[in-house]
Amino acid sequence: MLRTDRMNRFLRRQYARGRRANFGYWLPPDGVRLESKIARTALPHILAADERRDTVLWPCLFNQWPDWTWGLQGTGDCVAWMVKHRLDVLLAVTIHSKLARIKVPAQVVQEAVYGFARVEHYGRPDYGGAGTYGSAAAHAIERFGILLRQPYEGHDLTRYSGRRAIQWGRTGVPDELEPLAARHKAVDRVAVTDAETAGALVQAGYPVDYCGHTSWGTHRDQDGFARRFASGAHGVTITGVRYGSRPGFWVANTGHGHHVSGPVGPFPVPDVYAQCGSWVDWDRCERVFRAGDCFACSLVAGFPRMAVKDLGTQEYLG
Amino acid sequence: MKPTTLLAVGLIVAGLVAAWRPAGPRPTPAPTPPDEATRAIVADLRGQLPPEDGRRLGAFYSALADVIERDAGDLIDTVARVRQLNRRAGLLMFQRTGIAGKYPGLAQQIDRAIARGMGLEETDEGYTDVELDAERIERLVRVLRAIAWACRGG
User: Fold this and answer.
1) Model's pTM, two decimal places?
2) CA B16, CA A230: separation in Å to the nearest integer?
3) Of the candidates A101, A86, A92, A53, which has an alpha carbon nearest to the alpha carbon of residue A308?
4) What is the total count of domains within chain B?
5) Does B129 fall in a domain?
6) Is residue A208 over pLDDT 90?
7) Is B84 within a domain?
8) Rounded to whole angstroms, how far apart are CA atoms A249 and A238?
9) Rounded average pLDDT over A230-237
10) Residues β-bridged to residue B131
């Protein structure tokens, strides 16, 4: 049996006994996932790309924020870190593609994602532990929006605070900030349930969640793929795809500090980004997608494909 | 035979000879010259190609324009699909004809002309993939016809 299935059964038993695991990821309650469209059927234009090509999205991130660095979770808010990084990369790609409507581009506040997911969306912060799940966070940023890393009146959100995450995870995001968050809502949430669609989404410029019972690298081999793994209930972000003889996804675990070492493989990776990520084999990721709690979204209605590299003439005229 | 009969037969023969044309391929009608603005976009392409290859490429882009015009956005509704159509139709038309690699830089010039004609934004990643509304389709058809015109020497 797949480890993901074992984990899901374990978590279901916990639910049945009215308990929650005391870590950063919960299994979504039955039915929640069904409220989302499935990317494979909802986004035919993304899957219709006539060729699959290796794509990495972090150049846009570092182009937008050259000083980007990883952080350290202050509580079991990995799912919020996952969604924050997905949105940061998406925002950078969207700005790069000149489609963004956010006038003050700043990174996303993960404490707000966490609070919205646990309290405002799920409505039950008294579960007895830290954490949330992918579906709740994906719904929350669509229903309630996002806050940006900047000073707001009465709230300086320029830096991450684990204490704030814990507080907002219990009481929700302060009411006075909710209208400000509502100015920037994610749109077109889709569940990503297979690796092929995840690859097509990354190729089109959309990072994807990697959420559930997951494995992430701690040391990379010569090819940049994870050779040693940590695993458990966790949420991290996929920001690259590669095909060829050894297909896989770049998994960025941005909330665990510097914890990965080894060669990065064929694509240049900034040192600070390599310290918190690795390529992970296709099949390993496929199992997580199939478990059903991974999402993608857009900041512009209709999931536009961000760019085509050329208009195809070179293919026949050389 | 009376002279009048002889004259009548002669006139009939002359008429038949005058009406006869040897069978052969009809030349493709020359495309209509584009307007000034579109002509400027394809100016670099003019006079680059020898007549034979110019005719082949011109016929291709002319046909591509006709197909896109008739489709009117039903199938070819995004820039990505334009790329797909151009790539696949071009490969089918020109593979193993010896034209690939014969004119360095021509493909990029044609891509740029199409993008400029459509008003596409160029980024480091390529061209922004947008949906094609009626105006954008009309601009695409116009620039493809202009490319056909320029390939044939303008």
Assistant:
1) 0.66
2) 92
3) A53
4) 1
5) yes
6) yes
7) yes
8) 6
9) 91
10) B78
Closest-approach residue (CA) in chain B for A309:
B126
- DSSP H or E segment with residue B14: helix B3-19
Top mean pLDDT of A41-45, A156-160, B78-82 is at A156-160
B22 domain residue, yes or no = no
Residue type, A265: G
Domain residue limits at A283:
3-303
Note whether residue A80 is domain-resident: yes
Structure tokens, B29: 């009608």
Average of per-residue pLDDT across B122-138 = 81
| Residue A315 is assigned to a structural domain of this protein | no
Which residue in chain A has the smallest CA separation from B113? Answer: A311
Structural contact between residues A139 and A35, judged by C-beta atoms closer than 8 angstroms: yes
CA–CA separation, A191 vs A186, rounded Å?
14
- 8 Å CB contact of A316 and B83: no
- Do residue B84 and residue A312 have CB atoms under 8 angstroms apart? yes
Identity (one letter) of the amino acid at B54?
Answer: G
Question: What is the structure's pLDDT at B28?
Answer: 57
pLDDT for res A22: 42
Number of domains in chain A: 1
Does A307 contact B99 at a Cβ distance shorter than 8 Å? no
Q: Which domain holds residue B71?
A: 31-151
Percentage of residues in chain A having pLDDT higher than 70: 83
Cα gap B78→B113, rounded to integer Å: 17
Number of C-beta neighbours around residue B109 at 10 A: 18
Please report, for the domain that includes residue A42, its CATH number. 3.90.70.10
**Neighboring chain A residues of B101 at a CB cutoff of 8 Å:** 317-318
pLDDT at A61 over 80: yes
Q: What is the pLDDT of residues A75-125, one digit of tens each?
A: 999 999 999 999 999 998 887 776 655 666 799 999 999 999 999 988 766
ipTM above 0.95, yes or no: no
Task: Report if residue B72 sits inside a domain.
Answer: yes
